[in-house]
Amino acid sequence: NAGVMQNPRHLVRRRGQEARLRCSPMKGHSHVYWYRQLPEEGLKFMVYLQKENIIDESGMPKERFSAEFPKEGPSILRIQQVVRGDSAAYFCASSTDRSRGNTIYFGEGSWLTVV
Amino acid sequence: GNSVTQMEGPVTLSEEAFLTINCTYTATGYPSLFWYVQYPGEGLQLLLKATKADDKGSNKGFEATYRKETTSFHLEKGSVQVSDSAVYFCALRLRYNFNKFYFGSGTKLNVKP
Questions:
Q1: Cα A10 to Cα A20, A79, A90, A111, distances in angstroms
Q2: Three-state DSSP state, B49
Q3: With contact defined as beta carbons under 8 Å apart, do A108 and A2 qualify?
């Protein structure tokens, strides 16, 4: 049973380019979360999605960032017109439901470097 | 607001030494508390958790007790091994918004043989 799969593991983009990070949740999981870890900081919540729905995007920057979780395929975190400050590790997590006792499982992260 | 503060690393210990990693929190509600571990090149894994005051979470020889009076959840292990070398994250989750975790900045542990 594969865990949460993220790709690419490492991505280098020039300023102004677009970055797309993909996350395939664990089998049977329909809830996906994205977190960002800036250098020397803890993980910060970005967005929570279910299939075809954004449930909570309170942690998403207002501009340039978007996320989706289509009916088929992985969840995508998209960053348009990247800037140096977007350089970070982006972690995806998934769970079976949103009940109080649920355990969420994290992927290995995608490291974005903007040059 | 909600936040988690944990001791800065790296923490370097010899094998079989006693480990304490301090974690304190502030929360607007009644949180559940967690420790996650990240081994080199891997994702975060849940190490242990506690959901109410005075609960003790334990796993793989690690323990942490939920102390409401001191708002703390310190991680301890009596005898560390080289294989425990990793980054440890303390986190909280509120009962009314259990989709969102608040993480500390992580503490890197290096255990030398």
A1: 11, 15, 10, 5
A2: strand
A3: no
Residue B39's closest chain A neighbor by CA?
A108
All residues of chain A having their beta carbon less than 8 Å from the beta carbon of residue B99 are 31, 33, 48, 55-56, 98
B44–A100 CB contact, under 8 Å: no
pLDDT higher than threshold 80 for residue B96:
no
Question: Chain A contact for B37, CB < 8 A?
Answer: no
For the stretch B10-24, pLDDT in tens is 999 999 999 999 999
CA A33 to chain centre: 6
Residues A95-110: what's their mean pLDDT?
A: 79
Q: Is B105 left (phi over 0), alpha (psi -120 to 50) or beta?
A: alpha
pLDDT of A64 > 80? The answer is: yes
Q: Which residues of chain B make contact with A107, given a CB cutoff of 8 A?
A: 43
Mean pLDDT of chain B: 93
How many angstroms separate the CA atoms of B61 and A90, rounded?
30
Q: What is the DSSP letter of A115?
A: -
> Do the Cβ atoms of A48 and B100 come within 8 Å?
yes
